[in-house]
Write a structure and sequence with these properties.
The protein is mainly alpha-helical. The chain is built from 11 helices and 2 strands; from the N terminus they run ααββααααααααα. It is rod-shaped. It comes from Dendrobium nobile. One of its GO terms (molecular function) is zinc ion binding.
């Protein structure tokens, strides 16, 4: 607002600083306002300048602020009321100043924050301090920016402090140097990330091939196990079949019942009882035949 008033007419700003009062005369020790017709040229010029100042305020302020200052008669009254409204009293100003100084003291660059974003926050604090009357020298601001940087900027900080005079080194040059360094670091990190990504992709491809090869090996091993299991089962079946044939007993045929002896586990053709009986009958037949032959021999002898 001060810039706007100064650009319109700098005398208005001086009138706000010094204040304005209507022309008056002291008669018999009593101060009395003078009629307009008796004003001098300079008094008329100051009155017109005050009216111009009031008009600038009334046209620039929003409706809420206009209602606060509409009864004011001079530009200084309006200015003082606006200062109290937006800046507070001296106690409020001092309190805000203390908070800002605390923020300035603890100011640090945040993780993953760019130099530009950091400087934007820094500027807001410095501007607020300036509005409350706290001026910071160029050395203080440059030194504070260097001290708020993270450890990744240590090499750059050392180079600047050793090669530059911080009393005359401008903020703009400092920012340009830091931004250039930041871009270089980001590019190197980007290149390293790309290389790491390529290695990761290659590792995944190799792992995928290994897993595929391992999967095929597992399938071959599984088929081999199944085939061996089939061979063992076949061999056991053959052995059981041979055992059943030799012993006239078939394993696993407990549900078969012999038609002759009515015992389970075999059929009539393999029945041991029937075979024993047949053997005995055969032996008896052979004995009878032998006895008949012997009798015939005896009869022939007589």
């Amino acid at each position: 607002m001060s810039t706007f008033l100064q650009s319109t007419d700098y005398r208005m700003w001086m009138l706000i600083q010094e204040g304005y009062s209507s022309p008056s005369r002291e008669i018999n020790g009593i101060k009395t306002e003078v009629a307009f017709i008796e004003w001098t040229f300079d008094e008329r010029d100051l009155a017109q300048l005050n009216a111009k100042c009031l008009n600038c305020f009334f046209c620039a302020l929003k409706s809420e602020d206009y209602m606060r200052v509409s009864t004011c008669k001079t530009g200084k009254e309006i200015w003082d009321k606006l200062c109290i409204t937006y800046e507070g009293t001296n106690e409020v100003k001092q309190s805000r100043l203390n908070f800002l100084l605390h923020d300035y003291k603890l100011f640090r660059m945040k993780p993953h924050e760019s130099i530009s974003d950091m400087y934007t926050r820094f500027t807001q604090i410095v501007t607020s301090l300036h509005a409350l009357g706290k001026e910071l020298s160029n050395y203080e601001k440059v030194n504070k920016i260097l001290r708020c940087l993270p450890s990744s900027y240590d090499a750059k900080i050392t180079a600047i402090t050793e090669s530059k005079d911080l009393n005359t080194y401008s903020i703009d040059n400092l920012l340009g140097s830091l931004i250039a360094y930041e871009q270089g670091v980001n590019q190197r990190n980007l290149d390293a990330g790309e290389k790491k990504k390529e290695k990761t992709i290659a590792l995944k491809a190799h792992k995928s091939d290994s897993e595929s090869s391992g999967s095929e090996s597992d399938e071959v091993a599984f088929i081999t196990r199944q085939f061996k299991r089939f061979l063992r089962k076949k061999q056991r079946h053959h052995q059981n079949w041979r055992k059943g044939k030799d012993n006239k007993y078939v394993k696993g045929s407990s549900d078969v019942v012999c038609f002759d002896c009515r015992k389970p586990g075999h059929v009539k053709a393999d029945c041991p009882t029937l075979q024993d009986h047949s053997s005995k009958e055969k032996e008896k037949g052979e004995e009878k035949a032998k006895s008949r032959k012997d009798k015939k021999k005896i009869q022939r002898g007589f």
